[in-house]
TrEMBL record:
Superkingdom of the source species: Archaea
Taxonomic lineage from the root: Archaea, Methanobacteriati, Methanobacteriota, Stenosarchaea group, Halobacteria
Protein name in the entry: Alkaline phosphatase family protein
């Protein structure tokens, strides 16, 4: 193999230093010792479903179209999949240049595109997604035994660490089998549990070391099978402790008379704590089918007896968890106060997007902001959000920008109108309507801007600096090691550790059929991990 790209989701230098010091990741430690290394600045937003597509296409979300876990059609939404990534992936460009690839467990790659080689899709896909070639998952399972997209930490309950380790090790086994079968020029192997363990068990040293130990075993297996000339290790973002506040953006917008609320099962679900617990048990959300109970709860909500108020009473009594176990999800939803998309002037529709969307007439199905009022409304948002201070008197956001100052390309219109960057990513954003602007972060650890990059091999200058490496630079760098031209649409440039590839105009990207979408299982797992638990 010419080049192997290893992806460690949510990994940064402090994390690696701790596992190296513990001696649980000798293969990775050896790679880093012989590599040029440095921080890898992620994009905005620095979350898996948008960041990995940016890394593997080399373009910003304004050019590939994915800003978060959800894709929106007016006020309706679905979980994203590969058909929403409207730019050429690395392996697709390589295929056009007569190079073969094996891609294993990379997020947002289902349904898989046909290429010379194989693709086993990863995170943000159904459990049995369409891979390439047809039947590849069955082939892998017949060869190595059990293989699943999601692991023990992606489902409700306390995961057994032996099972967690075994799950991570299957990535290496599957990759080795596919490398032997397809003999590719390029390989891409990603590990998701390096991120998941910090969402689920951030202070559990044993769990963290078991995950990285198992990932290290899989990396050793992959290196042995591929015998690559070049190895590049990357992460899509970093991770760390959140020491700030929970910022309930839609509550702020409501105080400023920009958000309207509704109850009775209509509007944007705020996924109150009771509903969140139900989702964490794997119960699908889905479209409400109101029965007698739901209609009764809905009637109560309309007169102010909402799920949030009920929980506020039950929580101090220790009864909220009991109610969560017995309350049907549709009943909880019917009693939840929600953001009313249609009657709001602006709203945060998805905290992962890091922004606020204006309900613009002519763009949104029932927009209420006249186009002539758009700039004035956005200026009001920019000014108010820039001036917003937390309970400690500190600015909530380090940056508040119009979207065109952050994104560029044909899909900027899909972005929030105003982009917000939490101060040092210490503040946790929440779109729920909970009655107060601020609270304690729901997750003690979450994403940070700086990830990691390391590169070594025959086509790599290990003495060169990686001080200014950016996520967009990875795709051109990989192509440089393979001597393949980068697309003239790419926003990044090859890092100084490799010879820059020539630039070429590739055929225009053609949209793919989205009829294979199957999101219910995916939404449940994302809810369990907290990604869809606050404001979707």
């Amino acid at each position: 193999m010419r080049t192997l790209l290893l992806g460690l989701d949510g990994t940064c230098r402090p994390v690696l230093d701790s596992v190296f010091e513990a001696g649980v990741a000798p293969a990775l430690e050896s790679l880093f010792e012989e590599s040029a290394t440095g921080p890898l600045t992620s994009q905005l937003p620095p979350w898996t479903p948008s960041a990995w597509p940016s890394l593997y296409t080399g373009v910003n979300p304004g050019k590939h179209g994915v800003y978060g876990f959800l894709t929106f059609d007016g006020y309706d939404y679905d979980v994203v999949d590969a058909t929403d990534v409207r730019a050429h992936a690395l392996w697709e460009l390589l295929d056009r240049q007569g190079r073969s690839s094996v891609v294993v467990n990379v997020p947002v790659t289902a349904p898989a595109a046909p290429i010379d080689g194989a693709i086993l899709p990863g995170y943000v896909s159904p459990e049995d997604p369409p891979g390439h070639p047809d039947g590849i998952f069955d082939d892998v399972r017949e060869e190595i035994g059990a293989y699943s997209v999601y692991g023990p930490m992606d489902t409700p309950g306390e995961a057994d660490l032996d099972d967690v380790a075994a799950h991570s090790e299957t990535r290496g086994d599957a990759f080795a089998y596919l490398v032997d079968r397809f003999d590719p020029d390029f390989g891409f192997l990603e590990f998701q549990q390096t991120d998941t363990v910090f969402h689920r068990r951030p202070t559990d040293t044993e769990a963290i070391e078991r995950v990285f130990g198992a990932v290290d075993d899989a990396v050793a297996t992959a290196l042995s099978a591929a015998d690559p000339d070049n190895v590049i290790v990357v992460s899509d973002h970093g991770i760390g402790e959140y020491r700030g506040h929970e910022i309930r953006v839609n509550e702020c917008l409501r105080d400023w008379d920009l958000v309207s609320a509704t109850a009775g099962g209509e509007g944007m679900p705020s996924w109150d704590a009771i509903a969140r617990r139900r989702l964490q048990r794997g119960e699908s959300g889905g479209t409400p089918d109101p029965g007698l109970l739901e209609r009764g709860v809905s009637s109560l909500a309309r007169v102010g007896v909402t799920s949030q108020r009920i929980e506020a009473v039950l929580e101090p009594l220790g009864l909220a968890e009991v109610v969560a176990r017995i309350a049907p999800t549709d009943a909880v939803r019917a009693g939840t106060e929600q953001v009313d998309f249609r009657n709001s002037r602006a709203y945060m529709r998805d905290r992962i997007e890091l922004g606020v969307r204006i309900n613009l007439a002519g763009r949104e199905p029932e927009g209420v902001v006249d186009p002539d009022e758009y700039e004035a409304t956005r200026t009001e948002l920019l000014d108010r959000l820039r001036d917003l201070n937390d309970p400690d008197g500190e600015p909530v956001f380090e940056t508040v920008l119009p979207r065109e100052d952050v994104f560029e390309g044909p899909y900027v219109e899909d972005a929030p109108d105003v982009v917000v960057v939490p101060r040092e990513f210490e503040n946790f954003l929440n779109g729920s309507l909970l009655g107060e602007r601020f609270g304690t972060p729901r997750e003690s650890w979450n994403h940070k801007r700086d990830g990691i990059v390391a590169a070594t091999g025959a086509d790599v200058d290990e003495t060169a600096s990686l001080a200014d490496a950016h996520l967009f630079d990875i795709a051109p760098t990989v192509l440089g090691t393979l001597g393949v031209p980068q697309s003239d649409l790419m926003d990044g440039a090859a890092l100084s550790v490799v010879e820059p590839p020539p630039v070429e105009t590739y055929p225009e990207y053609e949209d793919r059929d989205a009829s294979t979408r199957d999101d219910h299982d995916v939404a449940d797992r994302l809810a369990h991990l907290g990604y869809l638990s606050e404001d979707q």
